[in-house]
Amino acid sequence: MKREDFEQVVASTIARYRLLEADGGRVVVTLSGGADSVALLEVLLSLGYQVLAVHCNFHLRGDESNRDEAFARSVCAARGVELKVKHFDVVAYECEHGVSTEMACRDLRYAWFEQVRFEHNCQAIAVAHHADDAVETFFLNAFRGTGVAGLASIKPRNGYVVRPMLEVCRADVENYLHELGTEYVVDSTNLGTDYRRNRVRNVVLQQVYDMMPESKAGLRRTVADMRGEWQLFNFLLAEHERAIAKHAPDGSVTINAQAIAAMGLAGESMLFHIVNRYGFNSTQVSEICRAMGNSGKRFESESHVLNVERNCLMLRDRRLLPAYEEVPISLASGVSQPVRLAVERVSDTFKPSAVDGRFKVAFSTKILSAERVVLRHQRVGDRMRPFGMKGTKLVSDLFADAKLSEMAKREAWLLEVDGKIVWVLGMRSADVYRVSSHEKEYVILTYNK
Q1: Which of the chain's termini has less CB crowding within 10 Å, N or C?
Q2: How far apart are CA 290 and CA 286, in angstroms?
């Protein structure tokens, strides 16, 4: 590929994926000193972009690390490009965070790149990944298990991070620099097999290319096609998600379980892409699909809770879930917290039609002499003696009979008087403190939901 063609392909990639704006301000260019990063700097300068170069010195390769820094400084000085250099203590970061050297370097450099971009009001962070890098990532993702997103490999854009050279390959990069007469440095660690990516590049793929030279172009084309498939998949996913998942103003999501089940394996994939952004993994999604129709199952990620209801899946931010509460109250007058209860003392013959047993209930005035009255949420094993029944019943069975959702169960309030549950507000009162026929005075409690 000639110099003009190389620059045209990069310009076309930038335009096709809307990676950069000609008048959008400076671009942070990540400059290691290797062929890829030097070519990225050269091509963006040739295309007329204003750049701010950044170089990381991780001090992992002794004199070679300092050589790379010196080379990056000389390249930028020769082109009048501002350069920012950052020195990192990778070993300390590894110990503090318990991550590998690869991950430590990645975390450190991208955090710093974003800091530079923000502080200097740059439009994007350009990194030098090319088509061969995308093929390597394709295999790395496939080997550890992945879906469409992983097989689509490296994307042209990830937030502010852009990859203008994703449609050229390593040979194109080297030819471009040769034609320009531009030198670069070689990272000796890229030639070994110490890291997984190096093993894929230098061992696995090299053997494939040696046996099937034509596969190199075929694999690049496959990865490029997968990027298109991923974009199409996301477009179709968004269309179907709007019909299946309803997002409420409070951040909760109601997912149509019947629609998911009717889709079979496609439904499981759909569910994964809906809930994965909330921290649920593929194993949990498989378990959720098996649990659908079994109301009461609960699954949790670090940030969210998913409850399996009769016909839906209810997803909520765990920070917004009601905590268990037990609030002492007085029935001497009306109650305003945590719920609104109107208290009326009546001096008249009791008429059953005056109450409904759910939102409006009547009790003997003896309830006013109780030592301890609280409003609280359900606890495991709670029992009450519903009005009109001879025996007791689990409150959880009352909830099941009423087909309450898991959230409704958590939010339900119980009135407990001297250790006995006398009322599940909005549902059922107990045969405790009942008003006898001879009583001429009683108390009516009204729940204003």
Answers
A1: C
A2: 6
State if pTM tops 0.85. Answer: no
> 244 near 260, Cβ under 8 Å?
yes
Q: What is the pLDDT of residues 25-42, one digit of tens each?
A: 999 999 999 999 999 999
Closest listed residue to residue 419, CA positions, set 324, 339, 325, 326: 326
Structure token digits, residue 244: 């299946």
- Measured between alpha carbons, how far is 393 from 385 in angstroms, rounded to an integer? 6
CA distance 265 to 268: 5
Residue 104 CA to residue 125 CA, distance in Å, equals: 19
Angle of helix 63-79 versus helix 35-46 axis, rounded to 10: 10
pLDDT of amino acid 438: 74
Q: Which residues pair with 394 in a beta bridge?
A: 383
Token output for 316: 């909520």
Average pLDDT, the chain: 91
**Which are the contacts of 446, defined by CB distance < 8 A and separation ≥ 6?**
341, 342, 344, 359, 360
Query: Using an 8 Å Cβ cutoff, are 157 and 166 in contact?
Result: no
- Rounded-to-integer distance, Cα 274 and Cα 287, Å: 15
Q: How many CB atoms lie within 10 A of CB 339?
A: 16
DSSP label of 201: I
Q: Is the peptide bond before 338 cis (omega within 30 degrees of 0)?
A: yes
Under 8 Å between Cβ of 306 and 314 = yes
Nearest to 241 by CA among 227, 258, 260: 260
Strand order, beta sheet including 27-30: 82-87, 51-57, 27-30, 124-126, 161-162, 157-158
Cβ partners under 8 Å of residue 89, min gap 6: 59
What letters, b where the CB count within 10 A reaches 16 and e where it falls short, cover 281-292?
eeebbeebbebb
The label of the residue with tokens 């994926």 reads 17
The predicted structure's pLDDT at residue 89: 95
Does residue 323 carry a pLDDT above 70? Answer: no
pLDDT recorded at residue 296: 67
124's tokens: 């994007």
Q: Across the strands, what pairs with 373?
A: 417
CA max distance for the chain: 108
pLDDT band at 80 (very low <50, low <70, confident <90, very high): very high
3-state secondary structure of 106: helix
Non-local (6+) Cβ contacts of 335 within 8 A are 329, 341, 343, 375
Q: Which two tokens stand for residue 41?
A: 């700097």
